[in-house]
Amino acid sequence: MIERRKFVRIPDNSLISYRQVRYTKTGGYLTRDISQGGIRFYVHEFIAKDSLLAIRLTLQNIFFSFEALVKVAWIVEVPRSDRYEIGVEFKEIPSEAVNHLIAYIKDVVTRQ
Q: Could you tell me the CA-to-CA distances from 4 to 1, 27, 109 in Å, in that order?
């Protein structure tokens, strides 16, 4: 099978919080995996595809936190659960955060 991902994705359990840009609802969860291009995590509410979210992500192993704007790429309901699994792609991310994220991912990959 040919890998179609643009970026290396690693398993991750960092803290993430979000706010829907057009609404006041917020949530806080743990990530499932992360890449330079986006994040996968769970939410307890349906969020429409293409919605914009303002997030705060805290990378656990390097104690670095940053804010970014992401766009919902996909969302699926988790069977027999009150949760949804969601995939978001980075739209606006500070360059310092990109550098930390790349270093964080490289470190995890080299330790595997």
A: 9, 30, 18
Gap between the Cα atoms of 35 and 8, Å rounded: 6
pLDDT (tens digit per residue) in 75-108: 999 999 999 999 999 999 999 999 999 998 898 8
E strand spans, the chain = 9-11, 15-20, 26-35, 38-43, 52-59, 64-77, 84-92
3-state secondary structure at position 82:
coil
CB neighbour class for 17 (10 Å; exposed up to 12, middle 13-18, buried from 19): middle
CATH number of 9-111: 2.40.10.220
Would you mind telling me the total number of residues written for the chain in this entry?
112
Q: What's the pTM?
A: 0.86
Instruction: Give the three-class secondary structure for 45.
Output: coil
> In this structure, are residues 18 and 27 in contact, taking their beta carbons and an 8 Å threshold?
yes
